[in-house]
What we know:
alpha+beta
Amino acid sequence: MKTFGVRALLSRAAHELRPGLHQVDVLVDVTPPRLRTVGDPECLHLAVAELIERAARRSPPGGVVTLAAREAPSGVRLEVLDEGHGGDCEEGLRLAPGIVEEHGGALRAERARPRGCRMVVELPGFQPVGIASL
């Protein structure tokens, strides 16, 4: 386990998958830009890649898959938002649920408005140890 940047994780997955995502764009939105989490970046990369691929399959041609990350009370909240219509939002996921669980996180699906699905991944955050706490 190590700490790593969330923007790098999401950007790498989006970049590597882009050639196979026919007619769907991927937008990466991370705030704050230096947001970090803790875990195995290669395993989490596999989970994020699976969520992106699923979201791209659900989105119409010309659609956008949004990868967002924010600070959350328990750590980091990642979202993969598609523009699809109906259906089971978690259908077809094989790797992501187990990887997220192994990292002490949680994965859930939410309906997005006006359409689509939002896959939410809650991960523990990186809390740097300050000098005052030593």
